[in-house]
Amino acid sequence: MSRPAARASSSTSVGRVRIPRQIYDELIAHSREDAPNECCGLIGGRDGEIETVYRARNSEASPLRYNIDPQDQFRIMSEMEERGEELAAIYHSHTASPAYPSQTDINLAAYPDALYLIVSLADGERPLRGFRIADGEVAELDLEVE
Amino acid sequence: MNADPDALERVVARVKELAKGYRPPTFEEVPHPDAALFLAAIDHQTGYTEPHEVDGEGPYEGSALLWALGLRAERRAPGALTARSLLGVDPAAIAAVFRAGQDTLRDPDRRAKLWDDLATGLLKGYGGQAGQLIEASGGKLAGPGGVLVRLSEFDAFADPLRKKAFLVCKIWERRGWLTVSDPESWEVSADNVLMRLALRSGLVPEGEVEQVREATRDAFKQVAERAGIAPPVLDDLLWEKGRENPDLIGNEAGDLSEPPRREGVVFY
Question: Which of B69, B76, B90 sits opposite A68 (nearest CB)?
Answer without folding.
Answer: B76
